[in-house]
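Milestone M4 deliverable, item 7.
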Amino acid sequence: MAVNIKVMSAGAVKAMVELLGPEFERETGNKLDLNFGTAGALRDRVKNGETSDVVILSQSIIAGLGSLVSDVTDLGKTVTGVVVKEGAPLPDISTPEAFKQALLKARAVAYTDPKSGGSGGTVFVGLLEKLGVADAVAKKAVLCKGGWDVCRAIVAGEADIATTFISEVVPVKGAKVVGPLPGYLYNANSYTGSVHIKAAQPEAARAFLRFLTDPARRDRWTAAGLEPAF
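Output delivered:
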């Protein structure tokens, strides 16, 4: 009998969940109820009592959920990248100092608002502090709800330069990855899937995680800007 499977997923792996989800539905007859958001916001929803079948969040957040989840499965990791509009001049980001100057020269800088719970935004604000440009960038920041909004701001010309996870940029037409953050600014985040301890469809949830981590699909994860962990 076909069942409905509720999935709560962070935006960094949204592309793969949306790509492979329909294939899983066709093969199994099951239906996926996809719910995307920032890792922090979804963590809070789970902690506040919302249930799901599958929960996909950053490795550290899944670990923090403790006994609320089980069957933890490593999916892959993605790297924070620097983003500009397709066709725009590429800024020099070869060193942390060069990236700092690119930020200072930019008319506007887009990144995920840390208050939204996005992992990338929280990390980036800390890096701005290290670079000593937090105040200067804050004055011209375009704060976004998540990686997709960051890319939209770049494509729409609302910002000249942005940072978000590369896996969130790859599916967006008109946004270009310049490269990963340089030197000591480099940042990678690992993501894991899990089954909620109160899942209505635990067996189907485990089947979906197995589907996502089938080694035959490794190349597709790589093409989406993610380094598979399986």
